[in-house]
Amino acid sequence: MDLGIGLPVCGPYAGPEAIGRAAETAERIGLAAVWTYERLLRPAEPMMLGVGTVPLPEFQAAVYDPRETLSYVAARTSRIRLGTSVLNALFHPPIVLARRLSTLDRLSGGRLTVGLGQGWMAQEFTATGVPPVRRGAGFAEHIAAMRRVWGPDPVRFDGRFYRIPEGEAGPKPSRPDGPTLFAGAWAPAAVERAASMGLGLITVFSDWDTLRSTIATFRNAGSLPVAVHVNGAVTTAPVEDRAPLTGPVRQVAGELAELASLGVDHVFWVAPDHDPDHLLDALGRLLRDAGEKYTNDRSLM
């Protein structure tokens, strides 16, 4: 298992220099990956979330695009993996997204890890002109079409939702089977679908019982990789009422063994309201406390 961090792509600390500095520091201290995500807009009306009907956080009003961000970061680093958690596949035509991702993969020397989602916000479906009913079967077909684009020429795809006329489409990714693909999922049906499609799993941590159940459901279909997304920060100072996997370094270090015992391959922290320099300092201490146990082993490549 190895560790990563969400880049400051939104919130009060976001900006080109902060993003570049965070990526360079993450690579220098031995983190395995940096992560971005996609948000097209922050709707004016409140949204139904797990805690009820609330406005989306203000920081989601402006989020740097994941592909351009990772291209920028690729030029400022040389080893660290570059991940999306997640990029909403359905909002982009398969051939367009496949070529943009393979270009990024080539430019970064094969360091791309792609977490894909189906999208959930009705307003984003409206804004992109994509019908929400395309979720599910359309998502599976979208990924099949991208895999066809990444395969040998000539490329052709004839599906229910997507068609690609026969022709040549490049550049091809660094590896013949394309970049490592994950699905962002937590509902049991979505977790099972990810496994059936041969995708790794990215799941957001909520509590230990839910995580155990999610991983058990996913592992029933094989031994594909699992990444855990933690919303919150590791800190160097005490924290009141901390959530699991957040707060003081020593306490988080003690919880990493539980993640490893569940077969988690990677864990990363996303904290837009937290100073990235402070989070990186804490993660550096976490790595030192853990010794070589959770250093970069390229487990998600």
Automatic annotation (TrEMBL):
Gene3D superfamilies: Luciferase-like domain. InterPro entries: Lucif-like_OxRdtase_Rv2161c, Luciferase-like_dom, Luciferase-like_sf, SsuD_RutA_monooxygenase. The lineage of its organism: Bacteria, Bacillati, Actinomycetota, Actinomycetes, Streptosporangiales. Keywords: Flavoprotein, FMN, Monooxygenase, Oxidoreductase. NCBIfam families: F420_Rv2161c. The keyword Ribosomal protein does not apply. This is LLM class F420-dependent oxidoreductase. It comes from the Bacteria. Pfam families: Bac_luciferase (PF00296). Signal peptide: none annotated.
